[in-house]
Amino acid sequence: MAVDLLLGLQWGDEGKGKIVDVLTKDYDIIARFQGGPNAGHTLEFDGIKHVLHTIPSGIFHEDAINLVGNGVVIDPVIFKRELNNLEQYNIDFKEKLLISRKAHLILPTHRLLDAASEASKGKAKIGSTLKGIGPTYMDKTGRNGIRVGDLELDDWKERYNSLRDKHLAMIDFYNAEIEYDLTELEVEFFKSVETLKTLTFIDSEEYLHQAQRTGKTILAEGAQGSLLDIDFGTYPYVTSSTTTAAGACTGLGVAPTKIKEVFGIFKAYTTRVGSGPFPTELFDEAGEIMGRVGNEFGATTGRPHRCGWLDLVALKYAVHVNGVTQLMMMKGDVLSGFDTLKVCTAYKYKGERIEHFPYNIEAENVEPVYTEMKGWKADLTKMTKESELPQEMLDYIHFLEKELEVPIKIVSVGPDRKQTILR
Ligand code: GDP
Ligand code: IMO
Ligand code: MG
Q1: pLDDT, tens digit, for every residue of 377-396?
Q2: Which atom of ligand 1 is nearest to the CA of 330?
Q3: 3-class DSSP assignment, residue 308
């Protein structure tokens, strides 16, 4: 059986958690392949909102196995908190939540290093979630990291101590003013490691290989978004993992020939949290309305999102890099009420019109060129069928499909599982 992927096409928070939850009924296994607790994936059903950081978004479905793949970085402390939050739902974590032995661990000092690095950057800071993501992936590629499988070895605490001491020297080097109580952090960390050890650690690439052989269906769940990809994002204002389709191959051990559908998910407008260029960002009332109506605050850090019009230049780029086969448009309901909508269809780049996503999209180089479309006024949040959608919204959808050359198969009109229109 083939593996399907679901990825964010913008700067994250597109609604991946919601859609993975909606699609899980069609899959046997949901597998996260990259990122860590910098992610915040929101699911809403039966009037309750859940935010997941490391645990895949299929966890509420009784029949689905949820797998944390080798490409993910796990903070045992945050992981334990996530498990505690789910205590009341009687989920059999030992059976349903499997962890790759090859996933790397975020140590308390990785978090401190993240803070020290950001503090040392001053105005040029990335706007990291400060979850230790960058330093953990640096140790992974630097071949110093500690993996989940190491927790089964006798000498892991010695390796922990030596990596921690190295980190402490690096923190001194940054000379940044950060305060911490390492003893307290370590007590919490070691306690959380014991909780993590109650779960099932597996050789996940072999597990997935066998699952494919026996006809199981697998959905790979991405975190962050394509414009935060370490290679293809707006570097250096990116995260430290491969958020694009190829990341599912390295982050799970799935061959490229086994990937079938690539679901690309985007908001009907654009948001970004943290620093970095954002050509269609709005600083006026329209942006303020998107933020307010869309409740644009980060699920992980609570920070307000920067908002702007849909950027088709960036979206096309993401569609190409990922080989998207089906699109999903989220939060169309948030755009209800605008007389006119703008869509960026080209950039004025150093004085010339271009239609591709260039090396540098800093504001001094790039000015968006907009196409205007008629807005819609109807309340979409109770609609369940495409035929109920206002004509102006259908025009918007058809325009995007023509530009992107990929069909939009799902239109989301609210945060709840049920507020999802299949086309
Ligand atoms: P993720 O990181 O991609 O999973 O997305 P987040 O959960 O961080 O952010 C998406 C936010 O939008 C969450 O608060 C969702 O509940 C909410 N949401 C998802 N889809 C829709 C939608 O169609 N309309 C509205 N109004 N909210 C939505
Ligand atoms: P989900 O999966 C939105 C952003 C941070 C920062 C940059 C680097 O919920 O869509 P990091 O902590 O990785 O060092 O931060 O990336 N960022 C996200 N923005 N959604 C996310 O995840 C994000 N994860 C990281 O704000 O700008
Ligand atoms: Mg999020």
Answers
A1: 999 999 999 999 999 999 99
A2: 23
A3: strand
